[in-house]
Amino acid sequence: MSETEKQALYDQLSTIELDKIPPIADLEALLKQQEADAANQKITPLIDRVAYSSDAALVEKVRPLGLQAIQEGKVAALVLAGGQGTRLGFDHPKGMYNIGLPSGRTLFQMIVERLLRLQVLSKAEKQIPLYVMTSPINHDETVSFFESHNCFGMNRADVIFFQQGVLPCFDTNNKIILEEPGKIAVAPDGNGGIYPSLEKSGSLADMEQRGITLVHVFAIDNSLVKPADPVYVGYCIDQNADCGNKVCWKTDAHEKVGVVAARDNKPCVIEYSEITKEMAEQVDPTGRLVFGAGNICNHFYTLDFIKNTILPNFGNLYHLAHKKIPYYEDATKTTVKPTSNNGVKLETFIFDVFPLSQRMAIWDVTREDEFAPVKNAPGEASDSPDTARAAISNVAKRWVTAAGGNLTGKVDSDQCEISPLTSFAGEDLEALVKGKDIECPFAL
């Protein structure tokens, strides 16, 4: 190895905390035991813990609690933005994607402008800080994108970037795999890597220094996300929750989505493959699916829960994936791409921490108002830029009608938009639209 390769290998190894990674054999034994235990654990719904955004009286009760916490500078927003738009045919960070609205707003811009509007609504003196979790493949481009757009109106100091971590890949003898001279094989640590990454990057300390006590975490691909949603945050405050999960009820018993439920009375996300046909189709007296709380990666945490409960217990939350991992072969001095599984990658899931919660709050929202993911390529029938654009447009039209406006023109247009800087959730639109004909498409 050259001196450069030696230094690169040393630097890479220096970032790995092996003392926090159990031996692979121990992990496999632990996971087998967990699977065996799970087979004997009773899966029950958490429907009695769910509160509904359709409960107008409850919404009016908890919204002021959330707005007050924002005003006092206690709330931060954190977006999981480590992915590329590969499935969209977009070779850049997904947050840079423009879904085709009249304004050309990207997913990142919509989030920032909603936070700026929320600052106005809450009468907060300080901006709501936005933490952006990137990954090694898109970090520099993401930071550059924000800076080239002046952070869309936010103070640069209030947009904090930190990278999702990577973990070493191991062979079956618990040895770290060398991919090439000066470089070990690594893989992203999954969206559960948010927790150690917050700590290692200094972002957790930054939150403490700012006086943040409540964190709203969400995925970049939901175009209708309400960052730092005061109703959701307020409900979690009202319930004295240490952890919260916003859900959308399943529209179909066999929709392929994980649901929030319980194993032995501990909250968790149950994968759809783990639910029997009978469980999936079970309904309550009103006809509502009992196991219907669909997980949409929209979470609430107290900083205390992250710091004092999640991080000390994180070493027991790894999953193993047996994979074909390229390795350096000394005899041939080349990197070999194996044809069969030769090692394991470690990963974590963000919801793996749910069983640690003592007081989980579950907030159910309507899909048409709050969940329009952008995952699939344009033209796809679901979860595409087209379906997201239509959802945003439909929300805008409903807001106009609710504020007393009269829709005219092409009312089925998917080119109707209300600036996030104008309204966060349909408020304060009367002066713009009440008693007026609003011709579709429109941009307010």
Short recap of the structure:
Helix content is 30%, strand content 23%.
Keywords:
Seminal Fluid Protein  PDC-109 (Domain B), Spore Coat Polysaccharide Biosynthesis Protein SpsA, Chain A, 444 residues, alpha/beta, 30% helix, single chain, 2 domains, 24 strands
CATH architecture identity of the largest domain: Alpha-Beta Complex
Q: Spell out the CATH superfamily of the largest domain.
A: Spore Coat Polysaccharide Biosynthesis Protein SpsA, Chain A
Largest sheet: 8 strands, mixed
Strand content: 15-25%
Number of domains: 2
Q: Determine and state the CATH class of the largest domain.
A: Alpha Beta
Structural class: alpha/beta
- What gyration radius follows from the Cα positions, in whole Å? 23 Å
- Order of strands, main sheet, comes to 2-22-14-17-13-3-6-7
Do you know the CATH topology of the largest domain? Spore Coat Polysaccharide Biosynthesis Protein SpsA, Chain A
Q: List the uncertain runs.
A: none
Describe this structure in words.
With 444 residues, this protein is an alpha/beta fold. It has 2 domains: 3-375, Alpha-Beta Complex (Spore Coat Polysaccharide Biosynthesis Protein SpsA, Chain A); 393-444, Seminal Fluid Protein  PDC-109 (Domain B), CATH 2.10.10. The protein is 30% helix and 23% strand. The chain is built from 13 helices and 24 strands. The strands form 8 sheets. Strands 2-22-14-17-13-3-6-7 form an 8-stranded mixed sheet, with helices on both faces. Strands 1-15-16 form a 3-stranded antiparallel sheet, with no helix packed on it. Helix 3 packs across helix 4 (107-122) and helix 3 (56-71) packs across helix 8 (230-238). The chain is globular. The protein starts with a helix and ends with a strand. The model has no long low-confidence stretch (mean pLDDT 93).
